Amino acid sequence: MQRIGMVIGLKPEKIEEYKRLHAAVWPEVLARISACNIRNYSIFLKEPENLLFSFLEYHGADYAADMAKMAADPKTQEWWAVCMPCQAPLETRKEGEWWAGMEEVFFHA
């Protein structure tokens, strides 16, 4: 199992829309997340900085392949098209990232 943390900005004028969207995530999107071996997926909002922090556990054997499968899914693409305009990627993110990856520096089970 791999633990993954990521961060991205949230546009201030889109906060309520983003919360509304995530209060009722489309069932097809949730099913795809599960089918791609993602468990215990959470997104947290830190105001007033308007940062979103996501945490997930990946339980598969090939993260890149599962993420490619998710990205190729038409319903997921539709969901992203609705959510992405709300987000403000960090300028310091790595090339190819939308959500900026984070280094885990501590874990206690």
Structure commentary:
Strands 1, 2, 3, 4 and 5 form a 5-stranded antiparallel sheet that branches. The chain has helices at about 15-25, 25-35, 65-70, 75-85; strands at about 1-10, 40-45, 50-60, 85-90, 100. Helix content is about 35%, strand content about 30%. The two termini are about 15 Å apart. The protein is globular. It has one domain: Alpha-Beta Plaits (2-Layer Sandwich), CATH 3.30.70. The mean pLDDT is about 95. The protein has about 110 residues and is of the alpha+beta class.
Q: Count up the helices.
A: 4
The major pleated sheet works out as:
5 strands, antiparallel
Please identify the structural class as seen in this structure. alpha+beta
What is the element string, with H for helices and E for strands? EHHEEHHEE
Number of domains: 1
Q: End-to-end distance, in Å?
A: 13 Å
Share of residues in helices: 25-40%
CATH architecture: 2-Layer Sandwich
Poorly predicted ranges? none
The first-level CATH class name? Alpha Beta
Strand content: 25-35%
Query: Quick one: overall form?
Result: globular
Write down the overall mean pLDDT.
Answer: 97
Tell me the total number of β-strands. Answer: 5
Do you know the CATH topology? Alpha-Beta Plaits
Cα-based radius of gyration, to the nearest Å: 14 Å
